Amino acid sequence: MTLLINLIPLLIAAIGFGLSWKLQKLWVAAATVATLFLYFQAQPSYMPKGQVTRSEPPVFTESEARIEDRNSKPMPGGERDQRMRDAVKQGLDFKQ
Q: Which residues does the annotated region (Disordered) include (predicted)?
C-alpha cells in the first residue's frame, strides 16, 4: 500500500504528460505540473518540527550471572561402543 501511495506522483506525471504528448496541448502539461505541485504541497511532512531533545540512556549494572555451557558433548567412540555391547548382552527387557 505504501508503494502505491509513493507511486501516485509518477502516475499523475505519466498520465498528464502522456495526454499532453498525444493531444499536442501545452496546457495539459502545465496542468500536470500544477497538479504535481499541489500534490506535493498537500502531502504532510513527517520530519520532526522544532528541537528534539534526547533522553539519557538508562545505566545498567554489571550482571553477576555466570555463563555455563549446556550443549551436550559428543560421547567418545569407545564409550559408545561399550554401551552398545552391554545393550546387546542384556537384550531387550520383555515384560511377561
A: 49-96
Find out whether 14 and 35 touch, Cβ atoms under 8 Å. Answer: no
The C-alpha atoms of residue 3 and residue 5 are separated, in whole angstroms, by 5
Query: CA 31 → CA 11, 27, 86, distances in Å?
Result: 14, 6, 91
Give pLDDT < 50 ranges for the chain: none
Cα separation, 36 vs 24, whole angstroms = 20
Q: Which residue has the cell 502516475?
A: 11
Q: First CA to last CA across the chain, in angstroms?
A: 69
pTM of structure: 0.44
Find out whether 16 and 39 touch, Cβ atoms under 8 Å.
no
Angle between the N-to-C axes of helices 2-23 and 26-42, in degrees from 0 to 180, rounded to the nearest 10: 160
